């Protein structure tokens, strides 16, 4: 018989009062079992017209202030977030039969954080941040490769490529975090943390 927590859920849900602690445990497990990109997450946005969009991004950092990803601020998602900072994330780890849904609001990371992460990227990725006008229409692939070549000529020193002002990070500050475990006959297990002022409330959800 599987061990249970105080909610009657699988012991993998633990007894954490803080969702970030439980997220770290599940994320560490995913790093061991997911073949590719355990930090891949579906990011949902909605613009000022109410049009929604979702795409995969990579989680680059997290702590008790939120979950961080980086992008071109002039991209479709960047412009949407500027107009409507309410965003969501969904991690799905098929190897573990688990998912985590996060809802909250986005805030820009500090320049210090952005500079530190940008400088850790490979030279080609830093050049790409300059060369690609993300989400904009191009006439053909050569237009992009020409732009890459031009910026490599402009910044030939691999350790001296400044971060574009339009490229930085967003931090999702959560107001709710839901942990989901696949259950037999679709009777899933769901535990949700809801932010109430400076504390987190835990509730059990029906599948």
What does this protein look like?
There is one protein chain. The chain is 27% helix and 35% strand. The chain is of the alpha+beta class and 207 residues long. The chain has a domain at 11-108 and 170-205: Electron Transport, Fmn-binding Protein, Chain A (Pnp Oxidase, Chain A, Roll). Strands 1, 2, 3, 4, 5, 6, 7, 8 and 9 form a 9-stranded antiparallel beta sheet that branches. A hairpin with a 2-residue loop joins β3 and β4. α4 (123-131) crosses α5 (141-154). The protein is elongated, with a radius of gyration of 20 Å. The mean pLDDT is 96.
- The radius of gyration is 20 Å
> Helix-strand pattern, N to C?
HEEEEHEEHHHEEE
How much strand? Answer: 35-45%
Q: What is the name of the CATH class of the domain at 11-108 and 170-205? A: Mainly Beta
Which bin fits the share of residues in helices? 25-40%
Number of helices: 5
Structural class: alpha+beta
Counting DSSP E segments of at least 2 residues, the number of strands comes to 9
Structure summarized in a few sentences:
This protein is α+β, with helices and mostly antiparallel strands and 207 residues long. The chain has helices at residues 19-33, 76-83, 111-120, 123-131, 141-154; strands at 40-46, 52-58, 61-63, 66-72, 86-93, 98-108, 167-181, 189-196, 199-205.
